[in-house]
Amino acid sequence: MSDRRALLLDEVRKFHQDAQPNQPFIPGVTEIWPSGALLDAEDRVALVEAALDMRIAAGPLARRFESEFARKMHRRKAHLTNSGSSANLLAVSALTSDLLEDRQLRPGDEVVTVAAGFPTTVNPILQNGLVPVFVDIDLGTYNTSVERVAAAIGPKTRAIILAHTLGNPYPAREMAELADAHDLFFVEDNCDAVGSTYDGALTGTFGDLSTVSFYPAHHLTMGEGGCVLTSNLALARIVESLRDWGRDCWCPPGESNTCLKRFKYQLGTLPQGYDHKYIYSHVGYNLKATDLQAALGLTQLAKLDEFTALRRRNWRRLRERLDGVPHLLLPEATPNSEPSWFGFVITVDPAAPFTRSELVAFLEDRRIGTRQLFAGNLTRHPAYLNQHYRVVGELTNSDIVTEQTLWVGVYPALTDEMIDYVGASILDFVAARG
Ligand SMILES: Cc1ncc(COP(=O)(O)O)c(C=O)c1O
After folding, report:
1. To 5 degrees, how large is the angle CA 374–CA 378–CA 381?
2. Which of 218, 219, 276, 282 is catalytic?
3. pLDDT reading at 1 higher than 80
4. If you measure from the C-alpha of residue 132 to the centroid of ligand 1, how many angstroms do you get, rounded to a whole number?
5. 304-433 maps to which CATH number?
6. 165-196, pLDDT tens digit by residue?
7. Of 35, 157, 219, 393, which is the most exposed, with the fewest CB atoms less than 10 Å away?
8. Which one, of 207, 201, 204, 200, lies nearest residue 219 by Cα?
9. Atom 10 of ligand 1, nearest CA residue
10. Is-catalytic flag, 16?
11. Which CATH class is domain 50-300?
């Protein structure tokens, strides 16, 4: 490293110390966010280094991240994207590729999912002309059950896509077995659950494809970003093509002729020898992420195990503080799982002598950030009122979540003091209002 570069990076470390003065926690004054990124001096240095090298597009750092992340997540391939929503779009769109021949999903085919969740788990189904089949969830785990998904499978059902809600795994092994038994594709939206395990294996390793988000609220961050993972090489190739404009060629940006046949193809009705770099086998997108994002992803990835341990610790501490509190349904880990929690979910008993809004207002007044369980029941939102979908069973619990549920944070930057203040505040509120 040149002296000037080393000096600059050293200055960046010093700058980081100055920019992050150790502020004492003042209850009721210091903001306790529900989620956020934990960024250290090495994250800042990584971003500056990438900027010094002018790594402004996808390149070697993106490829290195893909290979390290795939290894960490126990999958053969990872494809970096510009968001978790893009990752979901790619995963579902990949299932419609005609390279899948008789397994290809076609317009009108059905995909089973849950009604209560994040919109961009469901949107790619609609965006591909497929039909979502909504099932309900359980309160407490906020996931659906294998029985509900099994009951929703009909003659047109071709795939299942489910998110592990707020880090809590659903029974992914049993879900994969169900998908196998009915010859369905299974996509795990793992955006909120990186580091969680079910039956001893990482979530994201059970499905044909899994997706991740690197938005700052999530377990690892790149600012914006996402990833599609798979161990199925045919699906990996389709995902890459769809991500990279739909092209047939798989050369990384800036490289040519890795297949040694660049001018030897004849595809479609193109002339013999048409440049493979510009032959398109899918109607694709450009959903790539940049090396600047990947640089941050690499330093964040090194801290994943530490982040996972802190999320678990914070969740456990708050769960212990609140154990036995009346009128509130506390979260439960799915049996046989070890969640890397995204948040701490609470449902106010509909018969409680207070409302969710009152609890939320009380907490927000104490600077304790709250969130709702994303969209609640998606079918009640304006965007979905006129969409074509099927519902199997009642959406009773999805409606309860829409009206009664909130969550507070457990992310790694929260300290014991903060978690204790959140716990004590909830107990104060219930004692005063209960
Ligand atoms: C379950 C789930 N899926 C997908 C996404 C979308 O990720 P992104 O915000 O990176 O597009 C989110 C975002 O929070 C999410 O919670």
Report:
1. 105
2. 218
3. no
4. 18
5. 3.90.1150.10
6. 999 999 999 999 999 999 999 999 999 999 99
7. 393
8. 204
9. 84
10. no
11. alpha beta
